[in-house]
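Weekly modeling sync, notes
Attendees: S.R. (lead), two postdocs, one rotation student

Agenda item 3: backlog of single-chain predictions. S.R. asked that every request posted to the team notebook include the full sequence so nobody has to chase files. The rotation student volunteered to paste the first one in as an example of the format we agreed on. Action items at the bottom.

Example entry:
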Amino acid sequence: MIPARLASTRLPRKLLLAETGKPLIQHTYEAAQQAHLPSGLCVAADCEEIAQVVRDFRGKVFLTSPSCASGTDRVAEVAPQLGDVEILVNVQGDEPELSGHSIDLVVALLQDNPNAAMATLATPIREREKLLDPACVKVVTAPIQNGARALYFSRAPIPHAREWRDKLLQENPPHFYQHLGLYAYRRDFLLKFAALPRTPLEQLENLEQLRALEHGYEILVGIVDEPTIGIDTPADYAAFVARHR
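Predicted structure, as returned to the notebook:
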């Protein structure tokens, strides 16, 4: 499911930008169609304008309340309308170059770990500028039998090296990981999660995944080699258009 909100601060109406000949939301929709494990795909739109654009390219769309606080809340609002679907995947609408493999991986994490309620992805950070950038969310993990679980997410550079050495960024296994905003949830957990109150750390860092950790839920983390490239600014979109052309 692709939650889609018309308002965006740094790049107004970005999901409807269409300099490539297609709106950005359509690029993301078509990228998500490359995944093999999901049984269906839809957009959860916050307004009729986005919904009509999705219908125009023959995508499936649900209208949701414009007052939803987050993409997760938008996904949770649609979940009861999807019958007996057990696992739902939240794909960011501004990631038109998302790989189908990433979606399949986050689904497989829940399929292979039946007791887990939520899963996400991360990729190694190899540049100090990105490590220090608060817009790049970092995650630290601990190994478990079938992969890794999240210990904490932060906009700060974590873990913090007491003595910095540039070569830390190139060592293997990697020390630093960027969190990728792709989530898979079990249906029952998602409905509970959306109803939980926002927690202190979630509000402090403005990261909704911290709500799950603060309420005692485990988040599985899969590792991919390449980050997806989200579109947040006019420069991001211009670079995407150039790559597309």
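Discussion: group reviewed the output briefly. The first strand starts at residue 2 and ends at 4.
Action items: rotation student to repeat for the remaining queue; S.R. to check formatting next week.
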